[in-house]
Structures are given as structure tokens and as C-alpha cells.
Amino acid sequence: MSDKPDQFLTRETLLSRAKNQDDATAWEDFVNYYKDFIFIVIRHMNIPYNDCEDLIQETLLKIWKNLQKFDVDNDRAKFRTWLSTVVRNTVLNYIDKKNRNYKKQERVREEQEVRPELFNQSKDGQLDEFIEKEWQVYVTNLAMKKITPLFSPQAIEAFQRSLDGESTESIAEKLNIKPNSVYKLKNRVKGRLILEIKALKRELEP
Q1: Would residue 4 count as lying in a domain?
Q2: Which SUPFAM superfamilies match (predicted)?
Q3: Buried-exposed string 54-88: b where 16+ CB fall within 10 A, e elsewhere
Q4: Could you give the number of structural domains in the chain?
């Protein structure tokens, strides 16, 4: 394991900082964290890849303009619901523009193969549900990416193999180490990963 200093700093929630439109650094951090996640959501709605970048920029612009209206203190844990509304409306506007260009709504919906059920403001909240589940995966993957440089390749491989369900004995044999070493390595990575996930959630979630 690396001897690099701990990176977990107590910081004001990123959303709180990003609400200040004069804080360019906070907004840059927000974009760095959320841009890829917004892309995942838009692609889930079957929007063509070539149109995603423009939609991401439009979504981020709307967030930047309206984030001050979002009450972090009173709307705790509701940010991703608000985000899903912003994304949904941005994509709907995109479709409407396509409709006006082609003057045939059905033609556009068929050509783009969008998922109309995701635009339905139904009680099921399919898009909200997807965003919530995907966010958990996204944060976990982001945390894993951040901690990987802190460990040896052997430790990361031991942890990844254990996640895939491989037995300790099998991992030890393939990595040419003792089973007890496998146990220690994977638990060190797991412990650091849990800490990093908590740190990211403290910073990224309202």
C-alpha cells in the first residue's frame, strides 16, 4: 500500500459551493464530477451519441442558471430528482426542435428511437429510479478510480478477483501469495473504498 497522505478533507458540499456563480473552481469541479453521469443518463434515453455532447452542455447550462434556486438545506436528498427533471426537459426540447425541423413528430421519434416511457411523468418515476441506481454505481466506480493509485497492482487485482466471486485460495495461487495475504490485501482496498465512497457522497450529495 502506498504511503501517500490521506486525501479525505472536510469540505463544504460541492453543490453548496457551485451555487455561487462567481466560484469558477467550484463549477469546474461540479462539471468534472457530473458531466459523465449526465452523459450516462442521456444515452439511457437512446439519444444518438453525436447529439449527446450538445445536450450535456445544454443541461449543464440550465443547471448553472437554476442551481441557486435549489435549496440544498430544505431539499436534502432530492437533487437527483431535480437533475432528472432538468435532463428530461432538455431532451424533450431537443426532440421538439427536431419535430419542428422535420414537421412530423412520429418520424422523428421513430428515427431517434427515444424511449417515450421516460418522458412520462408517471408515478413509476422510471428515469428517477434509473438515476438513483446508476448514481450509486457511478460513485462507487469513481471512488475505485481514485483509490487505485494508492495500492499495488497485486492488491487491486486481489480485490477485483474477490468481487468476481473467486475464492481466496484461487486468488492466492494465481498471484503466487499466501491466502492470508490475499485476505489482508482485499480488506485494505475494501476499507479504503468504503471511506472514499463516503467522502465523495459527503462532497457531492446535498
Answers
A1: no
A2: Sigma2 domain of RNA polymerase sigma factors (SSF88946)
A3: ebbebbbebbeeebeebebeeeeeebbebbbebbb
A4: 1
